[in-house]
From TrEMBL:
Phylogenetic classification of the source organism: Eukaryota, Metazoa, Chordata, Craniata, Vertebrata
Gene Ontology cellular component annotations, sorted alphabetically: cytoplasm
UniProt record similarity statement: Belongs to the PP1 inhibitor family.
Record keyword Acetylation present: yes
Protein's name according to its UniProt entry: Protein phosphatase 1 regulatory inhibitor subunit 14C
Length: 158
């Protein structure tokens, strides 16, 4: 059973049933008899249903993005890229803005036939680094093991 109030002046008069313009209706659960009081609450219920439908639509739209991109794989990729930037900062001894232009393409590394080819690509990219890069390369190769190449998003045909 729910309580529906009508009017704009809350106060003790409503509790006693006296004037003040407020009325209190007790609404029976669905399936009960229909009366004038039952028609007061549906407006609020319609608004609530519309809000729920809008939330479901938003979730559904977000779901489409999740289907097109594997969210877990994207998160792993982001964490790896952040780690690479941090490690390059340590290797070059500077902040990201001051760092020389070093391009490490994870998809290119994943396309490589074997570990040796990946190692060569990384050594070529880090040729200007004056600090030892072996540990960084070894750790990066360990981290990308098991990752998949990210495919471009699928275009939805109309």
């Amino acid at each position: 059973m729910s309580v529906v109030t009508e009017g704009s002046e809350p106060g003790p008069a409503a509790a006693t049933g006296g004037g003040g313009g407020n009325r209190v209706f007790f609404q029976s659960p669905r399936g009960g008899g229909s009366s004038r009081e039952d028609s007061v609450a549906p407006a609020a219920a319609v608004v609530q249903v519309q809000q729920q439908q809008q939330q479901q639509q938003r979730r559904h739209q977000q779901g489409k993005v999740t289907v097109k991109y594997d969210r877990k794989e994207l998160r792993k990729r982001l964490v790896l890229e952040e780690w690479i930037v941090e490690q390059l900062g340590l290797l070059y001894g500077c902040e990201e803005e001051e760092m020389p232009d070093v391009e490490i393409d994870i998809d290119d590394l994943l396309d490589a036939a074997n570990e040796e080819e990946r190692t060569l690509k990384l050594q070529e990219a880090l040729v200007d680094c004056y600090k030892p890069t072996e540990d960084f390369i070894k750790e990066l190769l360990t981290r990308i093991r098991g990752m998949r190449k990210l495919s471009p998003p699928q275009k939805k045909s109309i």
